[in-house]
Amino acid sequence: MTRLPVPVGPICLALLAGAILAGSAQAQAPAKASAAAPASSANDLVGPAVPGVCLLSRDAVFADAKVGQAATIRLQQISALAQSEIDDERSPIVTEVKALEAQKATLPAAQFEARSKPLAARWDAVQRKASLRAREIEATRTKALATIGKEAQPVIAQVYASHKCGILFAREAVLGGNPAADLTPDVTAGLDAKITTITFQREVLPDEAPPAAKALSAPKAK
Fold first, then answer.
1. In a domain, 70, yes or no
2. Residue 61 and residue 190: Cα distance in Å, rounded?
3. pLDDT in tens, 116-163
4. Model-level pTM?
5. Cα 69 from Cα 144, distance rounded (Å)
6. Residue 53: beta bridge partners?
7. CB 85 within 8 A of CB 137
8. Is residue 102 part of a domain?
């Protein structure tokens, strides 16, 4: 017997609702906390500045820079539109499923089965679309991040040269260091001076319908 789709909560598509990078919110919070600290305590791993050694948090740059924040807002908008699209298609199916379930006790098994199959097929189609939209939003996020990274690279190189760096470490990979070695604030300011906004549309990917989808349109006779 065909199993009816179980009504569930909204299918979340907002992969980037909180930030442009996974973990950028976590990267942003420590940066603000360290900037607010009035003085170093005895437990802080702060030592003398080492000439030529520099640090940078790309995550914090992308989270704090105006262009990164603009990208986050745009991604939230795209995610909300995709969620609305899925909800509009899902809601009537849920309503029909509930109505059919309410009649189950009074319907012959064959009739219930016949009415269940189209609903199951429609539900599967909505689920596939939700999965497609999620992949498209992830592709959009990746492309936006690459665009910002391309804009940021010359700024990073300029700040790197102005600080006479000989080696650059990811700030997240370092347990301690001198704040003077951190290029993040200067890179963020430089990126803000270069670009403050960005606009883009949702990437369009081909629908990867499973082979089983064909079988739904022509069920085998019993």
1. yes
2. 10
3. 999 999 999 999 999 999 999 999 999 999 999 999 999 999 999 999
4. 0.74
5. 12
6. 167
7. no
8. no
